[in-house]
Write a structure and sequence with these properties.
With 314 residues, the chain is of the alpha/beta class. The chain has helices at residues 3-10, 14-39, 51-64, 83-96, 105-111, 127-138, 153-156, 203-213, 276-285, 290-294, 305-310, and strands at 43-46, 73-77, 100-104, 142-144, 161-164, 192-195, 224-231, 234-237, 251-256, 269-270. α4 links the parallel β2 (73-77) and β3.
């Protein structure tokens, strides 16, 4: 065998390179999850039943072992979530034998701490109030979430260990350096951290990992037929909470959800992708981020992500 043939044999395949990349991301995530468990007294893992939190949960299983998660799961429920997702959330938590804490925006409304401007207003932005109430109730000092830097420009500004002051607010100009994977986790009374173990993942990484690890997801992440209307260039789902407006034509399309959230502000995209591998191919060709393509609440400046994060939103 000549030298050229030997070099060709030694070259890594695309599959090997992809796995090496995912292995590095997984290793970083596991390290951060273990760091939280070792550093904080009362951490919790935010778990919505969405794809990012399921990827994080898979890494947590690898970090600590099946059925040995060292912190509870926390869900802030708007009361307007897709039932396919909340049902899957409950099923997955039960399978893991994990403690699942659910706190509802509706309970905050009953207490008077959340007041809607009108009955049809999206509750999504008001989750911050319920979240801060849950932090106070359980005295959480670290909340682990599945936000990624590629999702939205405000999230791209955040550190992996994102400090919150005693009011639960994020100060973009007071971020702590994270050089050489060293994290400053000192807290004053009443303060806490939001921790983002998959910050460095992209939407493509997430779907490649889901495909590789065969992670089960709620069915609405894959193609299905749904009644929608074209609203501001998005396919708004037609539901009891989101009926068609005057002049809008209801059509049935093959769609899937790239991200899931409050029904009143989350839209699907046209798609016939039935498997994670199919979605990897679609994601490679996507020109708009998942939030930019599917979240109506991100389209208005008064509900901008940066403003919401400063007010305590996750």
């Amino acid at each position: 065998m000549n030298a050229r043939a030997e070099q060709e044999l030694l070259k890594p395949t695309v599959h090997q390179l992809s796995n090496a990349h995912l292995d590095a991301l997984e290793e970083e995530t596991i390290f951060i999850l273990r760091e939280v468990a070792a550093t904080f007294e009362r951490p919790t893992l935010l778990f919505s039943g969405g794809k990012d939190s399921l990827v994080m949960l898979k890494c947590a299983e690898k970090a600590f072992g099946a059925g040995r998660l060292p912190y509870p799961l926390l869900m802030i429920d708007t009361g307007h979530n897709f039932p396919e997702v909340t049902d899957f959330r409950d099923q997955r938590a039960k399978e893991l034998g994990a403690e699942l804490i659910v706190r509802s925006v509706e309970d905050s409304m009953k207490r008077g701490t959340v007041r809607l401007a009108h009955p049809g207003e999206s509750r999504n932005v008001h989750q911050s109030v319920t979240l801060l109430e849950a932090i106070e109730e359980f005295r959480f000092d670290a909340l682990i979430g599945g936000a990624r830097r590629d999702e939205e420009k405000a999230r791209a500004k955040e550190r992996i260990f994102s400090h919150r002051d005693s009011f639960g607010q994020w100060q973009p100009k007071a971020q702590r350096p994270e050089l050489w994977t060293l994290f400053n986790t000192r807290l004053a009374p009443g303060e806490h951290f939001r921790v983002f173990p998959i910050s460095n993942w992209t939407e493509l990484d997430v779907w490649q990992y889901i495909d590789r690890e065969k992670i089960a997801l709620p069915s609405i992440y894959y193609t299905h037929k749904r009644e929608v209307v074209d609203r501001r260039g998005m396919l708004a789902p037609v539901t009891e909470l989101t009926p068609p407006r005057e002049g809008e034509q209801v059509i049935v399309r093959d769609v899937r959800f790239r991200t899931v959230g409050d029904i009143t502000c989350t839209c699907p995209v046209a798609s016939t992708a039935a498997t994670a591998a199919d979605i990897v191919i679609e994601t490679l060709a996507a020109e708009v981020s998942e939030r930019g393509a599917t979240r109506m609440d991100d389209q208005t400046s008064d509900a901008s992500m940066e403003k919401r994060k400063k007010d305590g939103y996750f």
